[in-house]
Amino acid sequence: MERIFSYDVQLYRKKLLIRLTVVLFSFTAFLVWNYFQVEVEARMDFLKIFIPLSIFLAIFLYRNFLKQIKLLSETAFVIRGKNLIQFEGKVEVNEMNLVGLVKIQVGEYKSFPRIILEWEERAISLINLKDHNEFVGLIEKISKLKHEWNEQTGNFFTKRMFYFLLPSLIYLVGFLILYKNNLPFLNFKTLFLFINCNLLIYFLYGVDQKQQEYNGIYQTRRKIIFILVAIFFYQVFIEFSSSLGMF
């Protein structure tokens, strides 16, 4: 018996394009807002720096999008006898004995169906697989196991996050109450810098390590940290440039 399963690339492409659009729109809105924060005579210098940066970011995101789609399109999982074989293109990269499975978990990750297969020594996570119900049924038949529901969704917005972001909420309340008093440390730039640093601390140290058990969550956390660090350096650069009279 041999059955080939592949990823649902069309669904992934659709959702990834939506997320990519949201990221680019948010970044554009962020730049527009900062454009109007600098002095009128310095706005041309601002554009000379950040328009090339924006183009570079757009190209980087688009190339990364194409790379992900290509990888997913070339990946396939073959159930052959009692083995699960993973192919990338025509190259076999993994072969696992399904008889040795100890647990089958089914759940969701970012609204995609997810299947987690666990052995004594390893575990793999299959996200957005076509015909995933048929896949699970075949795995159950071969391994003589029944699947369990996995509650982990890869959602970072938990009570733990609320506690970590409590300083930002307190700062925001103080900002709204005391903003008209013209205190030097209460301004929009300081507010956003404080919130960004707070978020960075949370994603560096506050995310439950159990949530990183599978690659999808770990990679998402890395991307968020990368974006927050980039924004942090941008904020510091703007503040430093302002103090030198560049903007």
> Could you name the ranges where pLDDT drops below 50 across 5 or more consecutive residues?
212-216
Spatial order of strands in the largest sheet: 1-2-3-4
Distance between the termini: 68 Å
* Beta-strand fraction estimate: 15-25%
SSE-based structural type? alpha+beta
Biggest pleated-sheet summary: 4 strands, antiparallel
Average pLDDT figure: 81
Number of strands: 8
How much helicity do the residues have?
55-70%
Judging from the principal axes of the Cα atoms, what is the shape?
elongated
The helix-strand sequence is EHHEEEEEEHEHHHH
Number of helices: 7
Tag the structure with descriptive keywords.
4-stranded mixed β-sheet; PH-domain like; elongated
3D architecture notes:
The protein is 56% helix and 18% strand. It is of the alpha+beta class. The protein is elongated and about 75 Å long. It has helices at residues 9-35, 43-74, 132-143, 159-164, 166-178, 188-206, 215-243; strands at 2-6, 75-80, 83-88, 91-97, 103-109, 112-118, 123-127, 148-149. Strands 1-2-3-4 form a 4-stranded antiparallel beta sheet. Strands 7-6-5-8 form a 4-stranded mixed beta sheet, with helices on one face. Among the domains are: 75-149, PH-domain like, CATH 2.30.29.30; 155-247, no CATH class. The protein is built from 7 helices and 8 strands. The chain starts with a strand and ends with a helix.
